[in-house]
């Protein structure tokens, strides 16, 4: 089940996005599985529909989900050329969280990049 932690430093859309990616990566959500409607999931989680819509849109852009109009939103059956695999999507989300955290700490992009390189052992 998806949930939002109001005490988390991550925005609700980012939490939702990360949870969907994790469920696709671990096979809990498989190709062709239908996700709840934006309104239903927003109501279940107690968040704004636009928050859910943003998470779905970003996951569609990354090739993890596909919208089928009135039929709903589904886990993409296959990763298409030019689309990221779930691991790459997870890494991109982690990088986004890192960038937001370093900005909030007042670090410059060069300082943040140096720390990331150091952590990666490069």
From TrEMBL:
- The domain of life is Bacteria
Signal peptide residues are none
> Record's InterPro entries?
Tscrpt_reg_HTH_GntR (IPR000524), WH-like_DNA-bd_sf (IPR036388), WH_DNA-bd_sf (IPR036390)
Question: What keywords are annotated for this sequence in UniProt?
Answer: DNA-binding, Transcription, Transcription regulation
- Give a yes or no for keyword Transcription regulation in this entry: yes
Give start and end of each HTH gntR-type domain: 10-78
Pfam families this protein is in?
GntR
Q: Which PANTHER family match?
A: HTH-TYPE TRANSCRIPTIONAL REPRESSOR YTRA
Protein name, as recorded: GntR family transcriptional regulator
Q: Which organism is it from?
A: Ornithinimicrobium pekingense
């Amino acid at each position: 089940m998806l949930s939002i932690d109001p005490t988390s430093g991550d925005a609700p859309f980012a939490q939702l996005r990360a949870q969907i990616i994790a469920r696709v990566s671990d096979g809990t959500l498989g190709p062709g599985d239908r996700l709840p409607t934006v309104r239903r999931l927003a109501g279940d989680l107690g968040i704004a529909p636009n928050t859910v819509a943003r998470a779905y849109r970003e996951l569609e852009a990354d090739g993890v989900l596909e919208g089928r109009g009135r039929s709903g939103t589904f886990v993409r059956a296959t990763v298409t050329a030019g689309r990221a695999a779930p691991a790459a999507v997870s890494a991109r989300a982690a990088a986004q969280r890192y960038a937001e955290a370093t900005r909030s700490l007042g670090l410059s992009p060069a300082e943040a990049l140096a720390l990331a390189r150091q952590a990666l052992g490069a």
